[in-house]
Design a protein that fits this description.
Helices cover 56% and strands 12% of the residues. By secondary structure, the chain is of the alpha/beta class. It has a single domain, classed as 3-Layer(aba) Sandwich (Rossmann fold), CATH 3.40.50.300. The longest helix is centred in the C-terminal third of the chain and has 15 residues. The chain is globular and about 45 Å long. Bound molecules: adenosine monophosphate. The site of adenosine monophosphate (AMP) has 17 residues, from helix 2 and helix 3.
């Protein structure tokens, strides 16, 4: 199986690139942000709990997100592999994911980390806020908080995968096609 952690700060282009990678490599997309937004829209208990954190740009508690992703993985059979997008966001989530995947004997193959500087991220997110319909993309102070939370709580996950020799940085600035090529080259290198 090809299991990819597509990593990077908010606005790095994970969703756009994930959609292209899914098609090329026939993988299942697991985006915790998308799952949480669906729960929020359906006004489930989980969605109502998550909303309090999401509208401030804070992380939803590990226990909630880990339980949610585990249920999702358990509900899917016959996948050729997964793209994890927006997950794991803490070392506790990364360790829980390793434990889940070891039960299935299909570990993470690689972490592909899109690198984009903070000024470019803020510009992209404000632009996305015009038509994404996402409240957390419209307000500059929420955007800045999401980037702060990424730097403080999420970026340590890089070391988690570096220790396993699974980390690859990919330039996240440039045309969508060039960034995609960078990701595909890194994936195809795994097979060599
Ligand atoms: P995203 O669509 O990945 O930018 O996620 C939007 C929001 O959902 C984040 O700002 C968090 O509040 C929440 N969220 C998404 N994924 C996670 C995660 N793995 N851990 C905690 N919170 C998350």
């Amino acid at each position: 199986m090809l299991n990819i952690v597509l990593f990077g700060p908010p606005g790095a282009g994970k969703g756009t690139q994930a959609a292209m990678l899914l098609e090329k490599y026939q993988l299942v997309h697991l985006s915790t942000g998308d799952i949480l937004r669906a729960e929020l829209k359906a006004e489930t208990a989980l969605g109502k709990e998550a909303k309090k954190f999401m509208e401030k740009g804070e992380l939803v508690p590990d226990s909630v997100v880990i339980g949610m992703i585990e249920a999702k993985i358990d509900s899917i059979s016959g996948a050729k592999g997964y793209i994890f997008d927006g997950f794991p966001r803490t070392n506790a989530q990364a360790a829980a994911l390793d434990a889940m995947l070891s039960k299935k004997r299909s570990p993470i193959s690689v972490m592909l980390a899109l690198t984009v500087d903070d000024d470019e991220l803020i510009k992209r997110l404000l632009l996305r806020g015009n038509d994404s319909g996402r409240a957390d993309d419209k307000d500059q102070s929420i955007i800045e908080n999401r980037i702060k939370v990424y730097n403080k709580e999420t970026s340590p996950v890089i070391d988690f995968y570096k220790k396993q020799n699974k980390f690859k940085a990919i330039n996240g600035v440039g045309t969508i096609d060039n960034i995609f090529k960078g990701l595909c080259n890194a994936i195809d290198d795994l097979k060599k």
